Amino acid sequence: MGERSRLCSVWLGSETGILKGVSVSRKQAFNFCNTSHLSRDQELRALCWGDPAESELLVGAVDGTVKTFSTEKGEFTESRRCGDPEDGCFTGLAALGGSGLLTCGERGPVRVWREDSTEPVAELDAGKNVCRMRLSPVHPNRVATGGKENGLKIWDLERPEEPTFTAKNLRDDWLDLRRAHWVRDMAFIPETDKVVTCTGFHQIHVFDPSSPQRRPVLEADYGEYPLTALSLPAAGNTVVVGNTHGEIALLDLRKGLVRGCLKGLAGGVRWLQCHPSQPVVASCGLDRFLRIHGLEDRKLLHKVYLKSRLNCLLLSSRDLEDAAGEAGTEGVGEEVKDEEDEVWDTMEQVEEKPKRKTGEEEEEPQKKRKKKKKA
Q1: Basic and acidic residues bias: where (predicted)?
Q2: pTM value?
Q3: Digit-coded pLDDT (tens) for 75-88
């Protein structure tokens, strides 16, 4: 299994509890789990790298356990309890320096765990109905949270008593009615203090904690359906967003205009991630496909059918770079087969025989013919 795991450039978590690895360059997909003990209690909700060398993968399950998967050995090496099922599913998972771990549940508990302790060393309450928690890639102590009727909050893990920034309610609409909060995902804009969010009301907001204004400094709308995920490309002032109807678009963060759309999806988007150095974006969701699009020409580069509804994905900065470079030589939009497809291909096809007509069914057309002759 270690040889297979070292080939994988994309990792995905499914509703059935299977960790899936995909080698885009070799057109192969693998399952890493014990398929004889699968259940809904093992549904995977969050993925993150455990170390900068990308040799360990942290996998958050719906029952509150976090498993460590070794990409060198191709197997799970550790499992630890990092929450209770009463806290809700994981809405965020991140590795901290010094073997630390950061988790967040739907009901608001954000906890810091250390390897040598079974209890959290720090904890804060982000409020109810949290949809996403993100750790700043530049400042390891900055954390952003948000959810349904739970606006954007930015926290400092060293001072968890109060958030350092709390977004203010949006201005009332033209009927003087209150506009509700529903933050579905967020990201820290690099080289700035700004944070971009997408909402369940098909809105994109940019907040600037360094300014005295606590309302969005930029508001934009896309489509008519709830937005579910976003990601920031490596270069440019743009953001990629996806919604519940399988629509993905690239928006300009300076003017809020749509630069282009990515086509080919057939189900709701659950996760998006842009490659850290290449102009490509990976997406997964309810249609059971992993798709990789180019951001410059907006074409579909790779498509992988993985048999299960997918919740989350994680890109490797090392392997995917080679895969993106080989896209032109191996075929655009070519579908990758999972290893289980070989079993189905070898099975004998059974054709259903046509049903014989009964006496009553044969009499009906004769009666219709007689009626036409009388007319």
Answers
A1: 350-359
A2: 0.83
A3: 999 999 988 888 88
